[in-house]
Structure formats: C-alpha cells, structure tokens
Design brief:
With about 375 residues, the protein is α/β, with parallel strands linked by helices. It has two domains: about 5-165 and about 350-365, Glycogen Phosphorylase B (Rossmann fold, 3-Layer(aba) Sandwich); about 170-350, Rossmann fold (3-Layer(aba) Sandwich). It is built from 15 helices and 13 strands. It has helices spanning about 15-30, 45-50, 65-80, 90-105, 120-125, 140-150, 175-185, 205-215, 230-245, 255-260, 280-285, 300, 315-330, 330-350, 350-365; strands at about 5-10, 35-40, 55, 85, 105-110, 135, 155-160, 195-200, 220-225, 250, 265-270, 290-295, 310. It has a seven-stranded parallel sheet with strand order 3-2-1-4-5-6-7, with helices on both faces. A six-stranded parallel sheet has the order 10-9-8-11-12-13, with helices on both faces.
C-alpha cells in the first residue's frame, strides 16, 4: 500500500508550486495512498479535493506562526497516520522540519526557487530547504544553485523537472469557442495580432521590458498581460503603455490556460531574474506556440534557441524587439515548424507523468 503523504505549503492559490502540489496529490491517490495537503487555503482547494486529496487549513502563510504550526503539523501527522512530510516553501518547511523531528517522520523538501540571501540570516533561513532526507531540485539550474551553497546535500539530492500534461495542453483539442471567448473578453478583434506574457504582475517578471520592446516596433501588436498583482504596479504599466503607444490588456487571472496560450500569436517570458524552471514556457511549447524567453535560469534548459523557441538577453528591450520583429515576419509554415519541434521536445522531456513518477520514487526511497 502506498504511504500517506502530507504536503505543506503557504496557500493553495494560482502558481507553479500550487499546481505541482495538486499534480503530486493526484499521483499519490492514483497509487493508492492518501494525499494530504496543509495550507492556509485558497482557490485551488476544491480542485485538490476533486482529485481525491484532503485539505487541512493551518496558518502556514504566516512566518510569525512557524513554531506554533510545527506543533499543529505534528498533531495532524499523528492523527492522520502520515508517513512522509513534504515541504515546498521555507516558512512552512521550518514548521515541517520541526514536526518531522517531533514525530520521527522523514522530511522531503522541494527547492522551487533560488531564495535570495541579501539580508543577514537569510542563508540560515533558506537552509531549511536543504535539510530534508531527500531534497528535490526542479531544474539543473536549481541543482547547481543548491550544491554551490550546500554541497553536503549531494547524496540526498534528486533532480526532477516540472512537467506539463500533454493532453490538457494540446492545441488539437481546444475548441475554437474557448479561444474566441477569451479574445472577446480581452477586447481583441478577430485576427488582431496579440502577444501573451503570462506571469504575476511584479516588476521582475519583465512586463515593462515587453512594453519597452513593443514601443520600438512601428505597428506593435497588443500585449496581453495575464496574471494578478499589485494594483499600483498595474496602474504603472497602463500609464507606461499609454505613453509609449503600446496597446495593452491587463487580463487578470484565467482558469483556462490552454485557451489563453492558443489565443495569442507569440508567448513571451521576460523575467529579469532567473526562474527556477518557468513552467509556462513548456506549457506554451506544448501548445505549439512560438516562445521568446529570457536567457537565464530554467528556460535555458527548456528552449533550444532557433529550434524550439528563442532566447534573448534578460532586460534587453532592443534585443527582444529585434526577435519579436523577426518572429512576426516569419512565414506561418516556419513558425509552425518551430512550434511542432517544441511540442515534440516537451513530450520527450517535460511531462507531468514523468514528474509524478519520479516524485513517487523519492517517497518509495524513504519507506
């Protein structure tokens, strides 16, 4: 019988960490185990429960509650017969680490980011992610980052790429009505060219870089910014686009990511800081969309320049504009060939099923 796994994270809202939690919960349930998740809750709780997972609401988004949460997690683990605790973020990981000590259970950590160390004590705070009986790195970039700071982790370190569901992200199964509904909601005319940058509205995700790049084009397509964020930054981007003459749509959150990717001509990743992996890149590639990404972090591993997409120097609006102009001018058949090669590469290297199987194997190592 497969073990009972308790995954721990701050909250269950939109994001790669959250979706990965659900994907592993589904795999645990399918393998015959119990998939428990502790978090402060969020919009994805119903989706977790629909997959057969069980949610327990704890104040895990609060750093002030770290040690109180440790006792709560230990009590939960004892009451529910948990076999392994899996932490996916630093503050909850400290609670999970203490709970694992209190209960004698093994701890798994997944290193989802680089976690900056620009304040005194941050390296110690971040070090909890290296304290698992198994430590999962979500890319070769993150693996190297972890080993540079914690070389002692090597025997416990496992590299597991994030994945995409090729059945969900399949352009041949997306009904035209889904795409048309989104484009209409975004105010796009039929046939109007549009670019999509799917990311939280936060400065390092590079929305302003995209606007600056489009301002260099004589007839810029519409930039659709898909994601939630701070209202102040959204207003700043709106003002910047208006001043530069760039048509802009702030689309907010969508539950239909495959249709959103299908609805635009080119997908942009413009982050100015390294992404640990960059799941949206492989989702777009699976949809056979042309992708232009910043040349740092995870996308270096998921894009072969000129073959499955394009890489540009991060923060370089001129280089991004030049690449955009080139891709927009490509013959449809040439652009389609890039998209087809990208999907084939994703199917070979970056599927959800492969990620799930590798993670379940990590759990089995600890039983």
């Amino acid at each position: 019988m497969f073990p009972t796994i308790l995954q721990v994270l701050p909250a269950l809202n939109a994001g790669g960490v959250e979706r990965g939690t659900l994907e592993i919960a589904a795999a645990i349930t399918e393998a015959g185990g119990r998939a428990l998740v502790a978090s402060a809750g969020g919009r994805l709780v119903p989706a977790l429960e629909a997959l057969g997972g069980e949610h327990f609401t704890l104040p895990l988004a609060s750093k002030a509650a770290i040690w109180g949460n440790a006792g709560r997690l230990a009590a939960l683990a004892r009451a529910e017969g948990v076999d392994i605790i899996h932490a996916r973020s630093r503050a909850p990981a400290w609670s999970a680490w203490r709970a694992a000590h209190l209960t004698g259970l093994p701890l798994v950590t997944t290193w989802h980011g680089t976690y900056n160390e620009n304040f005194p004590g941050k390296r110690l705070y971040n070090s909890v992610m290296a304290r698992g009986a198994r430590v999962i790195a979500i890319s070769d970039f993150i693996r190297a980052h972890v080993l540079a700071r914690h070389p002692e982790v090597l025997p416990r370190l496992r590299s597991i790429y994030r994945g995409v569901d090729p059945a969900l992200f399949d352009p041949d199964t997306i009904a035209p009505a889904r795409v048309a509904a989104l484009r209409q909601a975004w105010g796009l005319r039929p046939g109007q060219p549009a670019l999509l940058l799917p990311a939280r509205l936060t400065r390092w995700k590079g929305q302003a870089v995209l606007i600056a790049a489009l301002a260099r084009l004589p007839n810029p397509p519409v930039a659709v910014l898909l994601g939630d964020g701070r209202p102040g930054y959204a207003a700043e981007l709106t003002s910047l686009a208006a001043a530069r003459g760039v048509p802009l749509v702030l689309a907010g959150h969508t539950a239909d990511m495959p249709a959103a990717l299908q609805a635009c001509d080119i997908i942009i990743h413009a982050s100015t800081e390294a992404e640990a992996f960059g799941r949206v890149v492989i989702e777009a590639q699976a949809m056979r969309r042309p992708v232009i990404a910043a040349d740092l972090g995870g996308p270096r591993e998921t894009i072969t320049h000129g073959q499955t997409g394009w890489l540009v120097p991060p923060g370089d609006a001129a280089a991004l504009a030049e690449t955009l102009a080139m891709v927009l001018a490509m013959a449809p058949e040439a652009r389609d060939a890039i998209g087809a090669a990208a999907r084939a590469d994703v199917l070979a290297r970056f599927t959800t099923a492969a990620m799930q199987a590798a993670t379940l194997d990590v759990y089995r190592e600890l039983r």
